[in-house]
Amino acid sequence: MQILNTITLVLTFFLLFYVVSSLTSKFLARQRATVLKADAFIAKQEEVHGQLIDVREKQPFKRSHLRGARNMPAMTFSQGKSGLRQDIPVFVYGDTLGNALGVAKRLRKEGFTKENLYLMAGGFRQYTARKNR
């Protein structure tokens, strides 16, 4: 009986941690950029012809990405200036919203405004899963 209580406690802790981290991620994302659902993200990018940045690693990018996207992996992105223009909106996506969140933080430090920075809610993984249904 003691083992069952311990397992229940551990699982409850992990569930609570997941919920809190998810809510924190969404809150931080909305503070740093405009977060749009995948379809709205793509439509807005096509409308304003912004800079489309995929922050996933090279191999997932080669397998599949949004048309017109530039690959700038999140791990190497923080090593220096991004080379992106501040006068043109930047659309950032990764596998998840969390992947793009770190890049959004870096871009804000470089002087990009929240109004010129867009993130894909749910990320590319969720977009492709919904598209393949």
Features:
13% strand; elongated; 56% helix
Short description:
By secondary structure, the protein is α/β, with parallel strands linked by helices. It has helices at 2-32, 38-48, 58-63, 74-77, 97-109, 123-131; strands at residues 34-36, 51-54, 70-71, 90-93, 117-120. The N and C termini lie far apart (42 Å).
End-to-end distance: 42 Å
* Rounded mean pLDDT score: 86
Name the beta content range: 5-15%
pLDDT below 50 for ≥5 consecutive residues: which ranges? none
Q: How much helicity do the residues have?
A: 55-70%
Count of strand segments: 5
Described by the principal axes of the CA atoms, the overall outline is elongated
Structural class: alpha/beta
Quick one: biggest sheet?
5 strands, parallel
Q: Give the number of helices.
A: 6
Task: Round the Cα radius of gyration to an integer and report it.
Answer: 17 Å
- Order of strands, main sheet, comes to 1-5-4-2-3
Helix-strand string: HEHEHEHEHEH
